[in-house]
Amino acid sequence: MAVSTEAPKRKQAGWQARTEAVHAYIFMSPVILGLLLFTLGPMIISLALSFSDYNLLNDFKLIGIGNYTKLLQEELFWQSLKISAIYSVVSVPLGLVISLFLAILLNKKIRGIYVFRSMYYLPTVISGVGVAMLWKWIFNGKHGIINNLLGMLSIKGPNWLLDEQWALVALIITSVWGVGGTMLIFLAGLQGIPYELMEAAEIDGANRWSQFRHITLPLLSNVTFFNLVLGIIGALQYFTDAFVITGGGPNNATLFIAVYLWRHAFQFLNFGYAAAISWVLFLIVMLLTLLVFRSSPLWVFYESERKVK
Amino acid sequence: MSKPLNDRRRFLRLMALGTAAVSAGVLAACGATTAEQPAAPAEVQKIKALMWSNSPTLDENFKKRADLFNAKYKGQYEATMELLPWDQYWPKVDLAYASKEPIDVYFWDVQAYGHYTQGKLKNLQDDLNKVGDFANPDMYPQEQMAVWKFDGANMYAIPENIQTMALFYNKKLFDEAGVAYPDENTTWDDVKVIAQKLKKGDGADVTQWGFDVGDLAVWWGSISLAWAQGGGYFDKVVEPTKFTFSSPEAVNALHWIQDIMYVEKLAPDSETRSVVGQETGIFGSGKVAMYPGGTWMISSNAELPFEWDVAPMPKWGDKRAMPYFFGGWVVPKDGKHSDAATAWAIWCATEYQAEMANTGDWIPIRADARNSEAFLKAMPAGFKSVSDAIGSAQIGDVYSAKVQQILGEVISPTLDQVWNNKITPEEAGKQIDEKANKILAGG
């Protein structure tokens, strides 16, 4: 007599699927719990704090949107937003252009190229505070190496870190120091571009610039998109160098929004107000990121899209 | 037959269980409260005394102080001294309050006034009333101490040392130039004349400076010059209602400091100050003849490899003014071992004073220790004249819940602009008054 084995098989398959799902959840549990405890939990608490006047010493008391209305009337808040915006608008494109340029240079097949790649990437792994201290010396108006070099060319360098008009410029210049990470991602992208495309273009008579403009750039657009998003987020959260090199000065000329937030949270203990700043910063970062994502169909090229068409 | 060890499902199961066990362990460790310690003998109250780190010698002496206290109160109280870097000090104190487990007893600075305004500090007046001679003006400076009676009647902190400012000078540089040392008759005008004689080189090639602005670059230093003219920076010390940086006296004070750097060029400017003697301080570089600084630097400067001394702060015309500061202890109202903490604070201000005099670390609050032979022997020769001038000093603090914000956002950045020669003292005074008074008014 033929016995049907379908039902037990289905039952076994269901049991296996459930077991695998349990395993999957157990494997994911450290990350999920970490996210809940150390990211989502603090986010919810900070949201609640932003509607309170909590200062570590008093009891938690809700004050409605008081912190947000105060924020909008605060001159230094707008100053900090302005500084962060200028820094982002200048340093992000500058960083992208320089890192792409370096990546193209380091994409050559020449002897010792790995040494150069390591050298350019090295600054990325050096401690931020240590490097910031070095920059402080480099930019010293009287004894710094930059002004000494300018002096050799008979140019009187500015008091970089003590002059309101130059301090932010100095910090933007220091941002170039850390392009190694972005460069590495561009380099990976460049190595993914098929050589045949360049060869075909060359046969068709395209010069180097045309190859770069019509092949390299479009095929790197997804990498550029990735770097742009990370760059915007990083620039708006910029803190260490400004904190160590200028401390937000002179006269608040480098008061980045993260420095302004830190001051209120840990210097003045205005935790409620600082939480409100952090949520405004979060919303700005989210909006800009969404904007870049929405704009991506206009300028980001994915090979998979071409195939579908 | 037993399943092979490399069976995929078995392996996955083991890994999953292992991962879960590790994450549960980590979380449990994060969330776990400290295991119950074996109960200490009921009669011994164990306390933690917190201070910020100053220098290896001073820190070591704080630890020895705890040993002396423990020996004195053996079987009754036991103190552990903890020393933290300055930038970690107040966050630690504030977080301890937030977690409802305040530090038993901690060292005072203006931030603790915020703890008073939040009702966190213990009223120590009753305890001090029981201390024999604490109300004796010949032993403890009653007039100066009254400033810590924030409510006008009760002490909320117990002072153990008193600090002021003095004019430090490098004897070697004076001797080489054949110039007489500054003394109690020296005026701020004299300082510029002397500094000119001691300066070597010019323009970018200065090899020795006659003066450094030192702590005059901080508001509590520069205010001395305004006080000496009969002015000041605010209307009252506790909860000021008005800042007066634009007053003629305040503007004159700022001008004196800015001018000696940028007009007379007798002192290094901000740019040079930021890079000279980063390890030792600009005076420690041996290239500066004089600087006004806090007397708490006396013990640190003792290690400098040249001869130096101190003189009282110079006079403005015929009047001398300088700030004083108290070092002392505060006890949280809701501390677990309030008795032991209070005993520590009182012991430091009374019995320990003689030992403080011996170490020479701080200027004892108690007159007999401050004027003792042992203490004066540990001090530079000119110290007695500095100590004698303390009677005319004014508190170098300002107590307001908003003072940290006003200092951080308004006063310090604006004064930095003056010291960087970017704005005039007149402009600075106007800007500070406008912005600081707006914050005071709740704007």
Could you characterize the architecture of this molecule?
The complex is a heterodimer of chains A (309) and B (443). In chain A, α3 (75-105) packs parallel to α7 (164-176), α4 (113-125) crosses α8 and α8 runs antiparallel to α10. Chain A has a single domain, classed as MetI-like fold (Orthogonal Bundle). By secondary structure, chain A is mostly helical. The longest helix of chain A has 44 residues, at 6-49. Chain A is built from 14 helices and no strands. Chain B is α/β, with parallel strands linked by helices. Chain B folds into 2 domains: 45-163 and 325-390, D-Maltodextrin-Binding Protein, domain 2; 165-324 and 397-440, D-Maltodextrin-Binding Protein, domain 2. Helices cover 43% and strands 13% of the residues of chain B. Chain B has helices at residues 8-31, 56-72, 86-98, 111-117, 125-129, 142-145, 171-177, 188-198, 219-228, 248-262, 270-273, 297-301, 338-349, 353-359, 367-370, 373-378, 383-389, 403-419, 425-440, and strands at residues 45-52, 77-84, 105-107, 158-170, 290-294, 308-312, 315-316, 319-320, 323-330, 394-395. In chain B, strands 1, 2, 3, 4, 5, 6, 9 and 10 form an 8-stranded mixed β-sheet that branches. In chain B, β7 (315-316) and β8 form a beta hairpin. In chain B, α9 (219-228) crosses α10 and α18 (403-419) runs antiparallel to α19. The A-B interface holds A 19, 22-23, 26-27, 29-30, 33, 37, 56-58, 76, 137, 140-143, 159, 162-164, 248-252, 263, 266-270 and B 9, 12-13, 15-17, 19-20, 22-23, 26-27, 30, 91, 94-95, 97-98, 114-115, 118, 120, 204, 270-272, 274-275, 404-405, 408-409, 413-414, 416-417, 420, 422.
